[in-house]
Design a protein that fits this description.
By secondary structure, the protein is mainly alpha-helical. Among the domains are: 92 residues, Glutathione S-transferase Yfyf (Class Pi), Chain A, domain 2 (Up-down Bundle); 70 residues, no CATH class. It is 65% helix and 0% strand. It is built from 19 helices and no strands. The termini are far apart.
């Protein structure tokens, strides 16, 4: 009589054979979801091991599955899906994790760069920072369309981080290299400006939040964006406000002062909120962005944000503007008609 361990191994072997197109037993696989079946048997294995089972190990199952994951006759996308299922249920060794990284990288590359031979990607090279950087630079040189640009970002998100010192310089920072290529594509009109600017902002925000985009790199990116013209004011401003560097803030404030009329898309809620959190309310008071900021504060439920803006105006000597902001907020009765009483009552309420 077959044991539970025998049944699990037989199912795994059958699935591997089915993916290779040569099932060892006669079972109709039409309508059978092989990935779902694999997920089910690995889930059962996990439960078996957690219950103290010791007649079958994860490593024995992986020994059966590795050949199919390394089978180059099987599409990369299929192998990646198989690996995702394995990763979900089993504790992988460093070698298996490296295999997954190679497969996922190959899948991203294969989908975006049709002319690149993914079989030439060396797993040992990919395991090193230098090897990943070499591959990245090669792909950047072959990037000419939006799908490829997005794939560059996906690879950096997929790979382990580089050493900290790599991110400190504009010449070595991989995120800066990708952003530079994106802006080149805009310059030569390979992809639409709006799409690439959104991607640049996404990249900047993510890398800055992960301490991969220091002030020097943000300064470089700001200058590149400013070189694209006033039409990118929203993106250059938001990138500058990622940093707490006052010099960067002053550079974008000067651009904001030059703008005489706002057009749709020149600002958004994220940008308006950043004006407050970076203590720049008084700086933008003389610009066309102050009106949208007041509207944003009135429509927002964030009382702390509103209080911060009022305090900045008060501390900057703009009592009338601070009172006007209080008056325009829905949190204060209109019967408070003097500046001093409005601010005093507002301070007590908040």
């Amino acid at each position: 009589m077959a044991t539970p361990e025998d049944v699990m191994m037989d199912v795994v072997r059958f699935l591997v054979s089915a993916w290779q197109g040569e099932p060892t037993i006669e079972i109709d696989t039409e309508g059978l979801d092989l990935l779902e079946a694999l997920s089910h048997v690995l889930k059962e294995l996990k439960g078996y091991l957690q219950d103290g089972g010791d007649m079958l190990s994860e490593e024995e199952v992986m020994d059966e599955l590795r050949p199919i994951c390394e089978n180059k006759d099987l599409s990369i996308s299929t192998r990646v899906e198989i690996l995702k299922v394995i990763e979900k249920h089993l504790a992988l060794s460093s070698e298996d994790q490296q295999l997954i990284s190679v497969m996922r990288t190959g899948n991203v590359v294969a989908l975006a760069w049709k002319d690149v031979d993914v079989s030439a990607i060396d797993p040992e090279e990919l395991a090193t920072a230098d090897g990943r950087n070499t591959l990245l630079e090669s792909l950047i040189a072959q990037t000419n369309e939006e799908k490829q640009a997005q794939a560059l970002v996906t690879l950096l998100q997929l790979w382990p981080n580089f050493e900290e010192k790599v991110y400190s310089s504009t010449s070595s920072n991989p995120w800066i290299k990708v952003c530079d290529k994106l802006l080149q594509l805009v310059q030569y009109k390979h992809i639409s400006k709006q799409e690439v600017l959104e991607l640049v902002w996404h990249v900047s925000k993510e890398s800055s939040g992960s301490d991969m985009l220091g002030s020097e790199c943000i300064f470089w990116l700001l200058e590149r964006l400013q070189g694209c013209g006033i039409k990118v004011i929203k993106y250059s401003t938001k990138v500058a406000l990622l940093s707490d560097d006052s010099v960067l803030h002053e550079k974008v404030i000067e651009d904001l002062k030059k703008l005489e009329k706002l057009e749709e898309g020149d600002c958004d809620e994220e940008m308006l909120t950043a004006f407050v959190t970076r203590n720049l309310v008084t700086k933008i008071l003389p610009t066309v962005f102050y009106g949208p900021l007041v509207s944003h504060l009135n429509e927002s439920d964030d009382k702390e944000l509103l209080r911060s803006a009022v305090n900045q105006l008060q501390n900057g000597g703009y009592e009338r503007e601070a009172a006007s902001l209080v008056f325009s907020s829905s949190s204060l009765p209109r019967s408070l008609c003097t500046i001093s009483s409005a601010l005093a009552t507002y301070s007590k309420w908040m």
